[in-house]
Amino acid sequence: MRLRHSARSALLAVSLLSVGAPDGTAAGIPDVPPQVPPAARARIQPVTEHPSLAVKVAGAPFVARREVFEFLLDHPDFATHVTRALKLARYKIWRTPGGLGIDDGWGTVGTFETVWAGTGLRVMYARGAYQHKILPDIQGQAVVLIDYGTEPMTGGRSQINTAISGYVKLDSRFLSVASRLASSVARAKGEKEARKLAELFAETTQAIETDPAGVFEKVRRRPDVPTAELEDFRRLLNLPRAAH
Question: If DSSP codes are grouped into helix, strand and coil, which group holds residue 242?
């Protein structure tokens, strides 16, 4: 199965469900950072301790305003309005009474939540399914850790360095065992998806840095964009109110 575009933070978690999964212990499992508190650690432990697949990828550094980067990280539903307006990704995220829903546009659907947010780290949990037209759905859980650091630069911008860890655990023991036969392929695809997520961070923030007013106008024209977050985004970009 061909993997497609990722969009923002937790989107990797749901997309990993469509990768297929080898035994995560074969090449070592990325450590969960020690600053993750006990309650959040317990929430993700069933996935991170015995994953079907585990990958960790360092993204290429990029330059952006830290506040903009973190705003998009912490408002994933709004972030997909930005990436879709810029035609960078097909993912759609929306708010539901029970949390956030997600559809990657290629057959993977699910729900996710931010389990913990701290300085330089976001921890996200997802449950989803890859819906195949012929074969039964592939269901599972996933966790994504986005670890980042910043180095101040001129003009209020920073160099942002990211490391993305992804863990997926399939509900079917049969699929988990059978997919070990293709472990190198699955791991390579998982790492590719994580790199694409890091690249999307860079592409989105670079577009905003280059033309903040133009990006804002494209997002503003979307019919279902949340008005409160749109206004917060305008203020963050230091743009004037639109004339009525």
Answer: coil
Structural domains of the chain sorted by starting position, each given as residue range(s) with its CATH number in brackets:
11-233 (3.30.530.20)
Q: Are the C-beta atoms of 194 and 11 separated by less than 8 Å?
A: no
**pTM of the complete model:** 0.80
d(CA 139, CA 172): 8
> Which residue's entry shows tokens 């990436």?
83
Tens digit of each residue's pLDDT (9 = 90 or more) over 192-239: 777 888 888 889 999 999 999 999 999 999 989 999 999 999 999 999
Residue 135 CB coordination number (10 Å): 8
Residue 229 class from Cβ within 10 Å (0-12 exposed, 13-18 middle, 19+ buried)?
A: middle
Structure tokens at 50: 């015995």
Is residue 237 within 8 A of residue 212, CB to CB? The reply is: yes
Rounded CA separation 78/102 (Å): 12
Quick: pLDDT tens for 147-186: 999 999 999 999 999 999 989 888 765 445 444 444 555 6
Tokens for 84, please give them. 């879709």
Q: How far apart, in whole angstroms, are the C-alpha atoms of residue 156 and residue 167?
A: 34
Q: Distance from first CA to last CA of the chain, Å, rounded?
A: 48
